[in-house]
Amino acid sequence: MSDLQSYEISLRNQHGPLPLRTVRGESLRGLFYNQxxxxxxxxxxxxxxxxxxxxxxxxxxxxxxxxxxxxxxxxTTFQADLGNQIASAWALLxxxxxxxxLGNAMLEVxxxxxxxxxxxxFSGLYEQSPAAYGVTLDFLSPTIIERGRHYDLLxxxxxxxxxxxxxxEQYSSILLPPNFLVWVERCVYTRRIKMDTQSGxxxxxxxxxxxxxxxxxxxxxxxxxxxxxRVGDYLKSWQTLALFAEFCGTGKYTTEGFGRTxxxxxxxxxVEK
Length: 273
Prior knowledge:
Structural class: alpha+beta
Order of helices and strands: EHHEEHEEHEEEHHEEHE
CATH architecture of the largest domain: 2-Layer Sandwich
Strand content: 25-35%
CATH class of the largest domain: Alpha Beta
Helix content: 25-40%
Shape: globular
Radius of gyration: 19 Å
Number of strands: 11
Largest sheet: 5 strands, antiparallel
């Protein structure tokens, strides 16, 4: 049984290009729910209602773009076989070239295909992650990072991996090393940043600024930080959570097109001085 799934849904606007800037997150989430069975839509909606109690939805939705226009959706899930149910619903729409509404636009569903890392498990994700000292993440849609009750644009290691840890611990049975986030805050540094900001909208004209771009993170470990025998466990867990970002996204509004994240590469298999 696969825990982690990703699908890409091809869409075509029936009246010419649909610019990304015209899409509202609330409409995107509504479009996603409307294509599911009532039972599945209700089950997913309950996660949103429980968000203030610490529950998070087991999926993310992002827009696939072609030259700043909507080309489709990327849906990822991290709860066992949830993705199969979602993919089946969209495959039925694609089979009859159904028309669906996104805001004021009518879109034709043209196809559904598996995305990268589709069919993976939490244990498989951990096993394939290297014990490396560096990782590159690419933030592909506006990413809004929570900092207490407010939002921030700085991709600090503590904020990012704190987000990934909360989702991992909610849905995965694989335990992280003790005091993992304390270690992240102490040992993870930004090495290179190439980023910009871009506006996104959840509804109406309420504009939210999010970060876009690529960030290299690396580890600097002093001899007093960890016993040498434990370093590999922490590095591997750190890389696993970075790869998990492919599914859970990063930050706020990941079910409304924000925070799409790509795991670019691991680097530094030896200790970097």
